[in-house]
Amino acid sequence: MIKKEVGAWIWLTGSLAELSPLDRRTIEHAATVMALELLRAGSVAETAWKQSGEILSGLLTARGPASLSFIGQAEGTGHDLSLLHTVIVTGRGWGQNAGLQHRLTRTVGLPNRESRPRSLIGVHQDYVVTLWPLGREPLESARHAHEDIRRRRAQSG
């Protein structure tokens, strides 16, 4: 359990009664390691979400040389803002819901997590904003991004 939520399940073959004390201790140790790893991953995701939001807010509000520093910060996190992007804005107030943040980040981030350039997603003035990089055919890329987000959203319910 992490923050009063089930973070993962450990499935074992056989009966618990058949486990020796050493087996039980080994399983407890494995569960502790897994819980710590899940907690670490959650902290990394929260930090990335906050950093992306700060970069987006800076890009959308800064003028002149200040905006160049945010472009540099974005590049440092794997985002190439010199390319053409489309802006996707979601409903007001969504940025305050941590569960929704996680689902949106997975929905928008998974399709291009391994590829470069990556999309940049974060909260700006209580709106979730995504800068989605467009390929060689911008309209087709934007249509593909829209369809992919719609399909993933429908799948997650």
TrEMBL record:
Q: What name does UniProt use for this protein?
A: Uncharacterized protein
